[in-house]
Amino acid sequence: RQVPQLIEMHTFRDAIDVNYQGMAITGEELSGVPLEDHNVASKELIKALEIREEYMRRIGNFFPTTEKYELRRKDGVTHFYHADGTRETKFDDCYISQEKFLLDTEILTAMIVNGPMKSFCYRRLSYLQNKFSLHVLMNELRELHEQKCVSHRDFYNIRKVDTHIHAASSMNQKHLLRFIKKKIKTDGKTIVGGKPITMREVFEGMGIDAYDLSVDMLDVHADRNTFHRFDKFNAKYNPVGESRLREIFIKTDNHVGGKYFAERSRTLVELLDNIFLPLFEVTNDPASHPELHRFLQQVSGIDSVDDESKHEFVHFDIRTPVPEKYTDKENPPYNYYLYYMYANLSLLNAFRRSRGMNTFALRPHCGEAGHVNHLVPVLQYLYYLVQMGIAMSPLSNNSLFVSYQRNPMHEFMQKGLNVSLSTDDPLQFHYTKEALMEEYSIAAQVWKLSSCDMCELARNSVLQSGPNFKEEGVLGNDIHRTNVPDIRVSYRHEALVDELTNIFRSRMFF
């Protein structure tokens, strides 16, 4: 009888098989649902994965080097024209047409309410959650031992990225208070705003002295009165309830640097132009906006957010007018905005790649105040299969819409979804200087997260921030940098491969 050879902890990365206790499911039916339902669900899931693959391929397309173009907008989408007036057609296939977008939306919506699909996805998600509990029960001490074998690396000195934070409220309230007091004393004679008025005169007009200011007077922190009241939360962006202070201390100076966002958009075309025209112009001619060109080199994605709890009175279908002809007094639905953001961003990415520049991801909000479809099992399972990054802010949600105990972040992490912790608005929700560490520490206390769990969340945040990352599984993990044991990474990768195998092997029955 051959004695199994033990693998030293420091050689785990170089080993083909990571040594840990696992669980094998045997038998003909591994999914827990009837074969017919399994085949139907697998077919629909594969169709959904193919739809996403096409959208991701379009938004990251590649083209050879081009010349400068004249930019014109037609049907809400930017088009490229040569100097002689002829239109460049090789960019036409970079984005999905409106008709196909609406058709794909209907397909995914039908999947969400499909009975066999819901049952199949719910069972697989429950299986993944319970499988992780068994993995922790059998391998928790092994993971901890593997972490202890790594010198000079722990949770405090690994890389963590705040995957969702607003620049306007990136400081805590005490920091803002000290900054305002300092500026009143040092820059009291500086002219601020559009009218010739100094900072000191602004505060004198409000009857406030620097000595009188306090955190409570600033009143920028969210409290119980903001729960399910997004309008009251937005008012918290105004220190001392004064929009003038927000313009001075928290907002971009629209009279100088916010040229494209200072003017109020009266039509959807103006809105799209305000967002995308500067980006296309600086890609076409970087010398036209050199500061914007340098700034875009540090940008990895574009977001879209609003109060999703508001009812949408307009339905987006084939009869909905294009932005140039949209005259309805009601605001267009959220997916109307998303389509035109996606279409323009796909074209922009193709154009930037052709010029050798970096590209951007579309990372729209899927807020806690939105439709119940956000958490349906089918979408959860699809998010798991494609490992789509999810940035979650439990403290922000706790003050606005969902109590901390009901937040699904921990449940998502157990199932294996690609989740990360973020702060959202430290000015409104946090008390300490290290807002992101505050998120991690509270999550660890409430959900009893282990050191391995915390490091896994931190690793997810780095991967979501947009690096050029290729390797999967254990080969893509360096415990000396991430402090995530190869045991955990191997388990996650094997679980994902098993789920994909379970789906795609059903193709023989289609």
Automatic annotation (TrEMBL):
Pfam families: AMP_deaminase. Pathway: Purine metabolism; IMP biosynthesis via salvage pathway; IMP from AMP: step 1/1. The keyword Nucleotide-binding does not apply. It comes from the Eukaryota. Coiled coil: none annotated. The keyword Membrane does not apply. Its EC number is 3.5.4.6. Its cofactor is Zn(2+). It is an enzyme of class 3 (hydrolase). Keywords: Hydrolase, Metal-binding, Zinc. One of its GO terms (cellular component) is cytosol. One of its GO terms (molecular function) is metal ion binding. GO terms for biological process: AMP metabolic process; IMP salvage. InterPro entries: A/AMP_deam_AS, AMPD, Metal_Hydrolase. Belongs to the metallo-dependent hydrolases superfamily. Adenosine and AMP deaminases family. PANTHER family: AMP DEAMINASE (PTHR11359:SF0). This is AMP deaminase.
